[in-house]
Write a structure and sequence with these properties.
The protein is an alpha+beta fold. It has a single domain (about 1-5, about 15-200), classed as Aminopeptidase (3-Layer(aba) Sandwich). About 25% of the residues lie in helices and about 30% in strands. The protein has helices at about 40-45, 50-55, 65-70, 105-110, 135-145, 165-175; strands at about 1-5, 10, 15-20, 25-30, 75-85, 90-95, 120-125, 155, 160, 180-185, 190-195, 195-200. It is globular. Bound molecules: coenzyme A. The site of coenzyme A has 21 residues, from helix 2, strand 7, helix 5 and helix 6.
Length: about 210
Protein backbone atom coordinates (compact mmCIF):
# COMPACT_ATOMS: atom_id res chain seq x y z
CA UNK A 1 0.00 0.00 0.00
CA UNK A 2 1.26 3.45 -0.88
CA UNK A 3 1.44 5.89 1.97
CA UNK A 4 2.65 9.48 1.70
CA UNK A 5 5.19 10.58 4.27
CA UNK A 6 3.16 11.48 7.34
CA UNK A 7 4.53 14.24 9.46
CA UNK A 8 1.37 16.05 10.51
CA UNK A 9 1.40 15.17 14.21
CA UNK A 10 1.91 17.88 16.76
CA UNK A 11 4.36 17.75 19.59
CA UNK A 12 3.45 19.33 22.91
CA UNK A 13 4.44 18.80 26.51
CA UNK A 14 2.20 15.71 26.32
CA UNK A 15 4.31 14.31 23.46
CA UNK A 16 3.12 13.62 19.90
CA UNK A 17 -0.60 13.73 19.45
CA UNK A 18 -3.17 14.13 16.70
CA UNK A 19 -6.56 15.81 16.99
CA UNK A 20 -9.27 14.18 14.88
CA UNK A 21 -13.04 14.25 14.42
CA UNK A 22 -14.82 10.89 14.24
CA UNK A 23 -17.76 10.05 11.97
CA UNK A 24 -20.13 10.62 14.91
CA UNK A 25 -18.87 14.21 15.13
CA UNK A 26 -16.82 13.85 18.31
CA UNK A 27 -13.39 15.41 18.87
CA UNK A 28 -10.74 12.89 19.84
CA UNK A 29 -7.06 13.15 20.67
CA UNK A 30 -4.75 10.30 19.71
CA UNK A 31 -1.39 9.97 21.44
CA UNK A 32 1.25 7.52 22.50
CA UNK A 33 0.70 5.58 25.70
CA UNK A 34 2.85 6.48 28.65
CA UNK A 35 3.09 4.96 32.10
CA UNK A 36 0.85 7.63 33.64
CA UNK A 37 -1.98 6.09 31.53
CA UNK A 38 -1.63 2.64 33.14
CA UNK A 39 -4.69 2.85 35.38
CA UNK A 40 -6.91 4.23 32.60
CA UNK A 41 -5.74 1.45 30.28
CA UNK A 42 -6.55 -1.26 32.83
CA UNK A 43 -9.98 0.38 33.14
CA UNK A 44 -10.42 0.48 29.36
CA UNK A 45 -9.88 -3.23 29.07
CA UNK A 46 -12.13 -3.96 32.06
CA UNK A 47 -15.00 -2.20 30.28
CA UNK A 48 -14.61 -3.91 26.89
CA UNK A 49 -17.52 -6.21 26.09
CA UNK A 50 -17.03 -9.97 26.36
CA UNK A 51 -17.18 -10.16 22.57
CA UNK A 52 -14.37 -7.64 22.12
CA UNK A 53 -12.33 -9.31 24.87
CA UNK A 54 -12.78 -12.61 23.10
CA UNK A 55 -11.39 -10.95 19.94
CA UNK A 56 -8.66 -8.90 21.61
CA UNK A 57 -6.08 -10.12 24.08
CA UNK A 58 -2.52 -9.40 22.96
CA UNK A 59 -1.38 -9.26 26.59
CA UNK A 60 -2.83 -9.25 30.13
CA UNK A 61 -4.34 -5.93 31.21
CA UNK A 62 -3.63 -5.85 34.94
CA UNK A 63 -1.76 -2.74 36.04
CA UNK A 64 1.42 -4.59 36.93
CA UNK A 65 1.66 -6.31 33.56
CA UNK A 66 1.02 -3.06 31.69
CA UNK A 67 3.63 -1.11 33.62
CA UNK A 68 6.17 -3.94 33.32
CA UNK A 69 5.52 -4.20 29.58
CA UNK A 70 6.02 -0.50 28.91
CA UNK A 71 8.94 0.02 31.23
CA UNK A 72 10.88 -3.00 29.96
CA UNK A 73 12.32 -1.12 26.92
CA UNK A 74 11.69 -4.26 24.88
CA UNK A 75 10.37 -2.45 21.82
CA UNK A 76 6.69 -2.26 22.84
CA UNK A 77 4.78 0.92 22.04
CA UNK A 78 1.21 1.72 22.96
CA UNK A 79 -1.18 4.16 21.28
CA UNK A 80 -4.35 5.47 22.86
CA UNK A 81 -7.28 7.75 22.05
CA UNK A 82 -9.42 9.86 24.38
CA UNK A 83 -12.36 12.10 23.73
CA UNK A 84 -11.01 15.65 23.95
CA UNK A 85 -11.18 16.90 27.54
CA UNK A 86 -11.94 13.46 28.95
CA UNK A 87 -9.66 11.05 30.75
CA UNK A 88 -11.31 7.81 29.63
CA UNK A 89 -9.39 5.80 27.04
CA UNK A 90 -11.56 4.88 24.04
CA UNK A 91 -9.04 3.06 21.82
CA UNK A 92 -5.79 1.19 22.39
CA UNK A 93 -3.30 -0.40 20.02
CA UNK A 94 -0.02 -2.09 20.80
CA UNK A 95 3.00 -2.36 18.51
CA UNK A 96 5.96 -4.61 19.06
CA UNK A 97 8.96 -3.68 16.95
CA UNK A 98 10.03 -6.78 15.04
CA UNK A 99 7.94 -9.96 15.20
CA UNK A 100 6.65 -12.34 17.84
CA UNK A 101 8.91 -15.38 18.27
CA UNK A 102 5.84 -17.66 18.33
CA UNK A 103 4.74 -16.33 14.90
CA UNK A 104 8.15 -16.81 13.29
CA UNK A 105 7.72 -20.34 11.89
CA UNK A 106 4.25 -19.63 10.52
CA UNK A 107 5.50 -16.51 8.74
CA UNK A 108 8.40 -18.55 7.37
CA UNK A 109 5.95 -21.12 6.02
CA UNK A 110 4.41 -18.35 3.83
CA UNK A 111 7.84 -17.43 2.50
CA UNK A 112 8.17 -14.36 4.75
CA UNK A 113 11.58 -13.89 6.31
CA UNK A 114 10.85 -11.86 9.45
CA UNK A 115 13.11 -8.83 9.78
CA UNK A 116 13.65 -7.38 13.27
CA UNK A 117 14.66 -4.00 11.82
CA UNK A 118 11.83 -3.29 9.38
CA UNK A 119 8.89 -5.37 10.68
CA UNK A 120 6.42 -4.39 13.38
CA UNK A 121 3.65 -6.46 14.94
CA UNK A 122 0.27 -4.82 15.52
CA UNK A 123 -2.86 -5.39 17.62
CA UNK A 124 -5.63 -2.72 17.49
CA UNK A 125 -8.79 -2.18 19.51
CA UNK A 126 -11.53 0.41 19.90
CA UNK A 127 -14.06 0.65 22.76
CA UNK A 128 -17.37 -0.98 21.83
CA UNK A 129 -19.38 2.25 21.77
CA UNK A 130 -16.84 3.83 19.41
CA UNK A 131 -16.39 1.01 16.91
CA UNK A 132 -17.20 1.65 13.22
CA UNK A 133 -16.90 5.45 13.70
CA UNK A 134 -13.60 5.73 11.83
CA UNK A 135 -11.47 5.80 14.97
CA UNK A 136 -9.58 2.56 14.21
CA UNK A 137 -8.53 4.02 10.85
CA UNK A 138 -7.40 7.30 12.42
CA UNK A 139 -5.38 5.61 15.17
CA UNK A 140 -3.74 3.44 12.51
CA UNK A 141 -2.72 6.53 10.51
CA UNK A 142 -1.18 7.98 13.64
CA UNK A 143 0.72 4.74 14.26
CA UNK A 144 2.04 4.73 10.69
CA UNK A 145 3.24 8.30 11.11
CA UNK A 146 5.23 7.14 14.12
CA UNK A 147 6.57 3.93 12.57
CA UNK A 148 7.50 5.03 9.06
CA UNK A 149 10.30 7.40 10.14
CA UNK A 150 11.69 4.50 12.22
CA UNK A 151 12.19 2.51 9.02
CA UNK A 152 9.29 0.08 9.51
CA UNK A 153 8.18 -1.28 6.16
CA UNK A 154 5.94 -4.25 7.04
CA UNK A 155 3.20 -4.58 9.64
CA UNK A 156 2.19 -8.06 10.71
CA UNK A 157 -0.90 -8.95 12.74
CA UNK A 158 -0.25 -10.00 16.33
CA UNK A 159 -1.24 -13.67 16.33
CA UNK A 160 -3.45 -13.20 13.24
CA UNK A 161 -7.17 -12.41 13.21
CA UNK A 162 -10.09 -14.75 13.79
CA UNK A 163 -11.65 -15.44 10.39
CA UNK A 164 -15.12 -14.84 11.90
CA UNK A 165 -14.12 -11.30 12.97
CA UNK A 166 -15.67 -9.51 9.96
CA UNK A 167 -15.18 -6.02 11.40
CA UNK A 168 -11.47 -6.51 11.98
CA UNK A 169 -10.90 -8.32 8.67
CA UNK A 170 -12.74 -5.43 6.92
CA UNK A 171 -10.56 -2.93 8.80
CA UNK A 172 -7.33 -4.68 7.80
CA UNK A 173 -8.37 -5.05 4.14
CA UNK A 174 -9.37 -1.38 4.04
CA UNK A 175 -5.90 -0.47 5.29
CA UNK A 176 -4.09 -2.52 2.67
CA UNK A 177 -3.29 -5.71 4.61
CA UNK A 178 -3.30 -8.92 2.57
CA UNK A 179 -3.90 -12.45 3.72
CA UNK A 180 -0.74 -14.56 4.01
CA UNK A 181 -2.33 -17.82 5.08
CA UNK A 182 -4.56 -19.49 7.66
CA UNK A 183 -4.02 -21.43 10.86
CA UNK A 184 -6.08 -23.12 13.57
CA UNK A 185 -6.02 -21.77 17.12
CA UNK A 186 -9.36 -21.75 18.95
CA UNK A 187 -10.93 -21.77 15.47
CA UNK A 188 -9.74 -20.55 12.10
CA UNK A 189 -7.46 -17.49 11.86
CA UNK A 190 -5.88 -15.43 9.08
CA UNK A 191 -2.32 -14.19 9.14
CA UNK A 192 -2.24 -10.79 7.41
CA UNK A 193 0.48 -8.30 6.58
CA UNK A 194 0.78 -4.76 5.24
CA UNK A 195 3.72 -3.74 3.06
CA UNK A 196 4.31 -0.01 3.22
CA UNK A 197 5.65 1.74 0.17
CA UNK A 198 6.39 5.30 1.07
CA UNK A 199 5.75 7.89 -1.60
CA UNK A 200 7.27 11.32 -1.61
CA UNK A 201 4.95 14.13 -0.55
CA UNK A 202 3.37 15.39 -3.79
CA UNK A 203 5.26 18.36 -5.09
CA UNK A 204 3.35 21.28 -6.56
CA UNK A 205 3.43 21.58 -10.37
CA UNK A 206 6.27 23.74 -11.66
CA UNK A 207 5.44 27.39 -12.06
CA UNK A 208 5.23 28.32 -15.76
CA UNK A 209 7.76 30.94 -16.73
CA UNK A 210 6.10 34.22 -17.57
CA UNK A 211 5.99 34.93 -21.26
CA UNK A 212 8.08 37.90 -22.24
CA UNK A 213 6.25 40.21 -24.56
C1 LIG B 1 -11.25 -3.96 14.50
C2 LIG B 1 -11.35 -2.56 15.07
C3 LIG B 1 -10.02 -2.16 15.70
C4 LIG B 1 -11.62 -1.58 13.89
O1 LIG B 1 -11.72 -0.27 14.40
P1 LIG B 1 -13.04 0.62 14.10
O2 LIG B 1 -12.84 1.93 14.72
O3 LIG B 1 -14.23 -0.17 14.52
O4 LIG B 1 -12.97 0.70 12.52
P2 LIG B 1 -13.28 2.00 11.62
O5 LIG B 1 -14.58 2.58 12.01
O6 LIG B 1 -12.09 2.88 11.61
O7 LIG B 1 -13.47 1.34 10.20
C5 LIG B 1 -12.37 0.96 9.44
C6 LIG B 1 -12.80 0.00 8.36
O8 LIG B 1 -13.15 -1.25 8.96
C7 LIG B 1 -14.25 -1.82 8.27
N1 LIG B 1 -15.39 -1.92 9.17
C8 LIG B 1 -15.73 -1.10 10.20
N2 LIG B 1 -16.86 -1.56 10.78
C9 LIG B 1 -17.22 -2.66 10.11
C10 LIG B 1 -18.29 -3.58 10.25
N3 LIG B 1 -19.23 -3.41 11.19
N4 LIG B 1 -18.33 -4.63 9.39
C11 LIG B 1 -17.39 -4.79 8.42
N5 LIG B 1 -16.34 -3.95 8.26
C12 LIG B 1 -16.27 -2.90 9.08
C13 LIG B 1 -14.57 -0.89 7.11
O9 LIG B 1 -13.81 -1.29 5.99
C14 LIG B 1 -14.06 0.42 7.63
O10 LIG B 1 -13.70 1.33 6.64
P3 LIG B 1 -14.81 2.39 6.09
O11 LIG B 1 -15.55 2.91 7.27
O12 LIG B 1 -14.01 3.44 5.41
O13 LIG B 1 -15.67 1.60 5.19
C15 LIG B 1 -12.51 -2.43 16.11
O14 LIG B 1 -13.73 -2.69 15.49
C16 LIG B 1 -12.34 -3.32 17.32
O15 LIG B 1 -11.71 -2.94 18.29
N6 LIG B 1 -12.93 -4.54 17.32
C17 LIG B 1 -12.88 -5.42 18.52
C18 LIG B 1 -11.48 -5.86 18.86
C19 LIG B 1 -10.82 -6.53 17.68
O16 LIG B 1 -11.43 -7.33 16.97
N7 LIG B 1 -9.52 -6.22 17.46
C20 LIG B 1 -8.75 -6.84 16.39
C21 LIG B 1 -8.24 -8.17 16.83
S1 LIG B 1 -7.34 -8.99 15.53
Amino acid sequence: MLYPSLTANRKSQKGYHMNVKTKNGRQVVISKFNLADTESLADYFYHLSDESKQRYGPHPFDKKFISDLYSSQAGYMGYIARETGDDIIIAYSVIKLGFLPQDHDRLNSYGIIPDPETDATFAPSVADAWQSCGLGNMVFRFILSDLMPKGIRRIILWGGVQSTNDKAVGFYMKNGFRELGQFEHNGNNFDMMLEIIETATPTPPPVKPERSS
